[in-house]
Amino acid sequence: MRFCKRERTSGCEPTREAPAPGAREGRQSENFRAAESDDEAWQADEVERNEAAFMVCCVFNHPNDTEADRQEAYHWSLASRGAFDWLTWRNGHPAFCTDDNRRPCACCANLAPSSWRCSAVDRGELIARRPYYPNAFLLQRCTAFAPMAGDPDQRLVKRRWPGLLRPADGACKDE
């Protein structure tokens, strides 16, 4: 075994590799795991869970962020009040205060919170292979979207995104 003195650093400490081109300096997942909070008894309500899901989509939108990173950030932000407040601060504005009207599947009542499975596909409202596990933190417009209680916009899909639904097949035929 080889031991090094404290003053001498070459060869004793692990070297950090240079980040890949286009990668951020220091992954955010490393940063948010280090945040600590004293309020371990805090439980997020449905409004805060909805806000956290939307803010995770807005904050963790770098091409190097994966769906697993977003799910980890979502669960981390609901673990303590300090983490949720950090996510709000990092987002720069409160959730849903944007001109973007898209919503992630994590903000939809059709997504099963325990399995992350889309129940609209199971009921036949959407055509997809069953079981369907969508990218829960991808901002999109979906024809089967059902707003949760925490969403300030409680309109149905027909009113929320009128151009998204196509007219019934019989309505466009000439008689």
| Proportion in helices | 25-40%
What does the overall shape look like? globular
The overall average pLDDT, rounded, is 76
Q: What order do the helices and strands follow?
A: HHHHHH
Structural class: mainly alpha
How many β strands by DSSP?
Answer: 0
Measured between the Cα atoms of the first and last residue, the distance is 90 Å
What is the number of helical segments per DSSP (H or I, 4+ residues)? 6
Largest sheet: none
- Using only CA atoms, what is the Rg? 22 Å
Could you list the spans in which at least 5 consecutive residues all have pLDDT below 50? 1-16, 18-23
Strand proportion, as a percent range, falls in under 5%
Topology at a glance:
Elements: H1 28-33, H2 46-59, H3 67-77, H4 81-91, H5 119-122, H6 157-160
Helix pairs in contact: 2-3, 2-4
Question: Care to give the gist of this entry?
Answer:
With 175 residues, the chain is mainly α. It contains six helices and no strands.
Write up what this structure looks like.
This protein is an all-alpha fold. It has a domain at 42-163. The protein has helices at residues 28-33, 46-59, 67-77, 81-91, 119-122, 157-160. The model is unreliable at 1-16 and 18-23 (pLDDT under 50).
